[in-house]
Automatic annotation (TrEMBL):
Keywords: Cobalt, Metal-binding. Gene3D superfamilies: Cobalamin-binding domain, Methionine synthase domain. It holds the Pfam family B12-binding_2. It comes from the Bacteria. Residues 92-221 form the B12-binding domain. It comes from Catellatospora methionotrophica. This is Cobalamin-binding protein. GO terms for cellular component: cytosol.
């Protein structure tokens, strides 16, 4: 069996970076013709390339436009592989794959959907940002054997939690996967998913050994794992916190007055992201979620000429504003130390 090589990945990255859709599709299909299983093309070529694209954008080596066109090309590559290599059987059961509400990164879920289809599942892929009530209605109507919930960004964990509980309430077991569920998908377990997987390949193996049906997590009377509602109250103050931070930064950094409308919007977005990730960390009660985001944000801002000290100042300001939220202040202090 032929494997994807380092040279193959380098060439594919070059093609998607140039937006060469036809050439990238031909390249991927040629790999399968030389003996690489389509599953491996997805998992060992497309998936790592997408991770590399994210790194290039974070380091300001690729623009948002280049990242978007490359992702679109990869979507077309996965679609072409799916059309060319159709599964021979679908006897494992019915699997619904959906991204949680507000989750627009659909490619990871699509890759998983096709890989499991090739592994013998009858897959219903619902796409990006499926509203929770609509997903639950679909599950009640079609009664699949299992639902796979995809989450790529931790700020959507609360939405994922609602879906997990509702699906289990309908008697359908849940597999949680995606980078949004954290290292080894541990936040998926924290939210009560029946099974978790850190990658599409791992998810396939989980499904192969999972004796369905098996729903043992759901209990409508159980207490929430969240010890308080700090994350809810702080989320409601997001706009207020961002406004206070913008005023404070304007006083400390006079250059902010000369920002264009686009620059101000980007700054406000980053300030809001700090609040959203703080709320997510409070929701699952895991400081690492917040500190990991801040380390990533420092790289992103640093490569764009924004002084890292500005993040420290914002964390200090948020701590002052949130003086009556002890868990949030502890998270912010950990963020400053990191």
């Amino acid at each position: 069996m032929t494997a994807v090589s380092t040279a193959d990945r380098a060439r594919y990255l070059e093609l998607v970076g140039d937006g060469a859709q036809a050439a990238a599709v031909d390249f991927a299909l040629a790999l399968t013709e030389r003996g690489v299983p389509p599953r491996d093309v997805v998992l060992d070529l497309v998936a790592p390339t997408q991770a590399r694209i994210g790194e290039l954008w974070a380091r300001n080596e690729w623009s948002v436009a280049q990242e978007h066109v490359a992702t679109h090309v990869s979507e077309q590559v996965v679609a072409a592989l799916a059309a060319r290599h159709r599964p021979q059987h679908s006897g494992r059961g019915v699997l619904v794959v959906a991204c949680v509400d507000g989750e627009w990164h659909a490619l990871p879920a699509r890759m998983f959907a096709e890989v499991t289809r090739w592994d013998g599942w009858d897959v219903r892929f619902l796409g990006a940002s499926v509203p929770g009530p609509h997903l639950i209605s679909y599950l009640h109507r079609h009664g699949p054997d299992v639902v796979a919930v995809s989450c790529s960004v931790p700020t959507r964990l609360a939405a994922a939690h609602r879906v997990i509980e509702a699906a289990q309430g309908a008697g359908i077991p849940v597999l949680a996967g995606g980078r949004g569920f954290g290292p080894a998908a541990r936040w998926g377990l924290r939210l009560g998913a029946d099974r978790v997987a850190a990658s599409a390949g791992e998810a396939v193996e989980v499904l192969r050994t999972w004796l369905l049906p098996a729903v043992g997590q759901y209990d409508p009377l159980r207490e929430s794992f969240v010890s308080d509602d700090e994350h809810v109250l702080i989320a409601k103050r997001n706009t207020q916190l961002v406004a206070a931070a913008m005023d404070d930064l304007a006083q400390r950094f006079p250059a902010l007055a000369g920002y264009s409308a686009h620059q101000r919007e980007a700054t406000e977005y980053d300030l809001g992201q700090i609040v959203e990730f703080l709320c997510a960390a409070l929701f699952v009660d895991d400081t690492e979620l917040f500190t990991t985001f801040l380390q990533w944000l420092r790289v992103v801002l640093g490569t764009r000429g924004v002084p890292p000290s500005s993040v420290d100042l914002v964390l200090d300001l948020y701590a002052q504003q949130l003086y009556d939220f002890p868990r949030a202040r502890a998270q912010l202090a950990a963020g400053r130390r990191s």
